[in-house]
Amino acid sequence: MSSKITIIGAGSVGSTIAYNLSNNDLASEIVLIDINKEKVEGEVMDIVQGTSFRNPISIVAGDYEDAKDSDIVIITSGIARKPGQTRIELTQTNVNILKSITPQIVKEAPNALYIIVSNPVDIMTYVFTKISGLPENQIIGSGTLLDTARLRFGLSEHFEVAQKNIHAYVFGEHGDTSFVPWSCADVSGASLDDYAEMMRHLGKEPKPLDKAGMEEYVHKSGGIVIAKKGATFYAVSVAVCKLCGMLLSAYDSIATVSSVMHGEYGIEDVAISTLTLVGPNGVQGKVPLKLTDEEVAKLQKSANSLKEVISQIEL
């Protein structure tokens, strides 16, 4: 596959995405851009020296003009939350960074599909949609793709079944107000309760599923990793590379990514994650999965929490 992917930001997440891309066949060209020239050059040198074990690929430490003709641009720039810093302060700082990046990259790659990874990702996706001037279908926030992966891992461990057989999702913001629409969760077409009963007939004894505990696991996983090793970047980079694969495929896929809502579930003018049809033409629209009234209320609450933050920042 011949495609060009540009990554803005060579921190832990951006450089790990570049490394993962260098080990698969999604891209023939990778451009890594960062304000810290020494850092980005070092990252590229380290990555490119391992590519002798694969088919030839171009990886460069570049500037914005090197992003010309990119098929995908991934934005990871931003800073982590500092001790004592409020969520609003962090959001404004990262929004300001995005506002400085956007005109420079959009000028060079106006036809690319953009994946927003920078946190808070839903707000950054919304801001980029508002300020970039690009059609909305070209803009995809990584959203709860990682949260969904964490959920499926947790359920896989619980039921002792391969993650590929689990269809369960995390909706809402990539944050504390996200939730699992359990009414739609299944294992190979069977509801979680039905699957547990089926396993008992096969001589297995799955433990009762603590749904609240599983949601807490999803919510707190990132914080636990950060407390133990300082940052999270492996799992999110795999999720983003998976999303790149969806965007470069021949057919559309369905994923929990963040995009601006236009009345779905009674929600307007905010970017949030629900099931979304994505593919070579970017975002094709939200998939109208039937939720319970309680689940719709949770989604609306999550959207309102994001709107409250947006109302307090300067776009």
Please describe what this structure looks like.
- The chain is α/β, with parallel strands linked by helices and 315 residues long.
- It has two domains: 4-141, NAD(P)-binding Rossmann-like Domain (Rossmann fold), CATH 3.40.50.720; 145-310, Lactate dehydrogenase/glycoside hydrolase, family 4, C-terminal (L-2-Hydroxyisocaproate Dehydrogenase, Chain A, domain 2, Alpha-Beta Complex), CATH 3.90.110.10.
- Helix content is 42%, strand content 18%.
- The chain contains nine helices and twelve strands.
- It has helices spanning 12-22, 37-48, 87-108, 121-132, 145-159, 192-201, 211-229, 234-247, 293-310; strands at residues 4-8, 29-33, 58-61, 72-75, 113-116, 139-141, 166-167, 186-187, 190-191, 253-262, 268-279, 282-286.
- The strands form three sheets. Strands 3-2-1-4-5-6 form a six-stranded parallel β-sheet, sandwiched between helices.
- β1 (4-8), α1 and β2 (29-33) form a beta-alpha-beta unit.
- α1 packs parallel to α2 (37-48) and α5 packs across α7.
- The radius of gyration is 20 Å and the shape is globular.
- It starts with a strand and ends in a 5-residue tail after the last helix.
- Its main location: cytoplasm.
- GO terms for molecular function: L-lactate dehydrogenase (NAD+) activity.
- Residues 4-141 form the Lactate/malate dehydrogenase N-terminal domain.
- Belongs to the LDH/MDH superfamily. LDH family.
- The active site is at residue 174.
